């Protein structure tokens, strides 16, 4: 389900950027940490374990076959988007915050004090 949503959003954004005059590269690369889902999206053969997949999810297969999108594997340990969808250990979250430069501009002690008092 997440692959379908990611694919439709990526394709929509690509078409939108083209309409407003911003060139995009083809194919659109989507990074994912689910090898099984990546395999299903690129495999043309139907398997008895995948027969339950809804018809609308075959859209992803069609788009990968047409080379409009490519799913590339990225390990969970290197996936910086995980903080949006998963509960992470404190050290991992701190690394992601540092990579994304999301740390508050004040010192952490001041920030924690303001948070506790509700200011």
Characterization of the model:
The protein has 119 residues and is mostly helical. It folds into 2 domains: 1-74, no CATH class; 76-119, no CATH class. Helices cover 46% and strands 8% of the residues. It is built from 5 helices and 2 strands, in the order H-E-H-H-E-H-H. A two-stranded parallel ribbon has the order 1-2.
Number of helical stretches of at least 4 residues: 5
Q: What share of the residues does DSSP label as strand, in percent? A: 5-15%
- Measured distance between first and last alpha carbons: 40 Å
* Average of per-residue pLDDT values: 79
Strand order of the largest sheet: 1-2
> What's the main sheet like?
2 strands, parallel
Q: Which structural class should the secondary elements be placed in?
A: mainly alpha
Record the SSE blueprint:
Blueprint: H1 2-19, E1 28-32, H2 35-42, H3 58-65, E2 69-73, H4 90-100, H5 108-117
Parallel strand pairs: 1-2
Q: What's a quick, concise take on this entry?
A:
The chain is mainly alpha-helical and 119 residues long. The chain has helices spanning 2-19, 35-42, 58-65, 90-100, 108-117, and strands at residues 28-32, 69-73.
